[in-house]
Amino acid sequence: MPKASNAALLRLHATDNVLVATGPVVPGPAPVMEGGSLEVLAQVTLGHKLAARDIRAGEKIVKYGVPIGSATQDIEAGAHVHVHNMQSDYTPTHVLDATAGGAG
Fold it and tell me: Reading across the β-sheet that carries 18-21, which strands appear in turn?
């Protein structure tokens, strides 16, 4: 039986440049499942992404070992990675605006 872990962050694939929160995470050092820790810069909740390392504007965001979008600005290691600093390369912006309650 696998040993239980108190890791707050999980890398889903070895090539990912983001980590996923396994529950609520607050700013400060947070343990990473495969070892080590990451200095978290912003509070996030279950399932949200944090930059595992500095990510440059225009660089692909990689999760599950595949690109899921692109950084719209430089993202510091430990920062929340979400629609405010990345864009989907697959979902039109008007769809994102509509799901966020925007006018479209």
Answer: 9-10, 18-21, 49-51, 80-81
**Which residue carries 């890398």 as its tokens?**
11
* d(C-alpha 18, C-alpha 9), whole Å: 10
What is the rounded CA–CA span in Å between residue 14 and residue 52? 11
Question: 16 near 34, Cβ under 8 Å?
Answer: no
Find out whether 10 and 20 touch, Cβ atoms under 8 Å. Answer: yes
pLDDT per residue as tens, the chain (104 positions): 344 467 899 999 999 999 999 999 999 999 999 899 999 999 999 999 999 999 999 999 999 999 999 999 999 999 999 999 999 887 665 555 555 554 44
Query: How far from each other are the two terminal CA atoms of the chain, in whole angstroms?
Result: 49
Which residue in 41, 40, 47 sits closest to 10, CA to CA? Answer: 47
